[in-house]
Amino acid sequence: MTRTSRRTVLAATAAAGLAVAAGAPAHAAAGGRTPSKELFGTLADGTKVYRWTLANGGTRLKVLSYGGIVQSLETPDRHGRTANVSLGFGGLPDYVAKSPYFGGLIGRYGNRIAEGRFTLDGVTHRLPVNDGPNSLHGGDRGFDKRVWDIEPFTGRGEVGLALTRTSPDGEAGYPGALAVRVVYTLTARGEWRIDYTATTDRATVLNLTSHTYFNLAGEGSGSVDGHLLELAASRYTPVGATLIPTGELAKVARTPFDFRRARAIGEAVRTPHEQIGHGQGVDHNFVLDKGITSRPEYALTVADPGSGRVMKMYTTEPGMQVYTGNFLDGTLTGTSGRVYRQGDAFCLESQHFPDSPNQPSFPSTVLRPGDTYRSTTVHAFSSR
Ligand code: BGC
């Protein structure tokens, strides 16, 4: 695909029409229906973008072939009423022109790499700088702006999509041809699981994540200040003015970053602290007490007292970026036609720590030929 300029999207058809049978096996499991797809829009170079719909156990997920974007995620409240709990847009042009990574599949490197530069095996690699002096979320055209191949599947009470793409050697400055496979699964228990795997033909660095903006009261319903966050992290990585970690693993005790007991997000972001100033709220990587694990283990619970919706997250990753929607500034109009303002959502990005390629004391993000990158994160939805 040729490079798509921000202003040259020709046309996009939103939701309406063109439902296409997915061709998946007919034995959809109990509760899960065979995934279906419809045309969502067309990129400037003529590439068609599809929207896939998955449903299981009361949860419904809509995913775009552009960027692996979660365009909608519906879950039931305590009365069984569903709402879309993820911020997004109704049509493709907004995703191409102005999305702050809404729902995006992030690669090659989630979060920041200082000054868009790292050295691996004695060779210095330069990356596109797209966030002040730093490279953020894979540079100006990361995985969230690439078109993915998608195959649906059903079975064992689950429905899902396998997204695949080979990122060529040198793409966005990163070494190695990287074969990536990301599987989104909806289980009968109301879980959305993401399994990431990747292999490379040259040593490289890698940190994949998902950038869904959540509002458990429903996107466009206002602030998430009243949501309660409980996070199993005794330490976090403080940052400098451009949000690059200082290298310290600081204790959360007696700081606004202490979520070891459930606390309202709005209270934390209004507690004076130098670090809150740097991020204009919480925009920090937390060091999960469980560390790196081979199976997804408990990381956090977030609850909306109004709707009763609860989301728990489990991950194999050692870190979690908590971002409280600080840079939403009232200039974007979302899926249901409401304007998004600061603090109208939060992101919870399972990850290795930011800037790890330049921070030898952090867990390594290097992937070498012959090894397989594996990462799993589970979002478990319920209500109370
Ligand atoms: C970062 C924020 C950034 C946002 C992009 C988050 O992962 O931590 O600083 O603004 O992504 O919208």
From TrEMBL:
Highest taxon above the source species: Bacteria
Segments of skewed composition (Polar residues): 373-384
Gene3D superfamilies, A to Z: 2.70.98.10
Record carries keyword Signal: yes
GO molecular function, one term: aldose 1-epimerase activity
Signal sequence extent: 1-28
Family membership: Belongs to the aldose epimerase family.
Identification of the protein by name: Aldose 1-epimerase
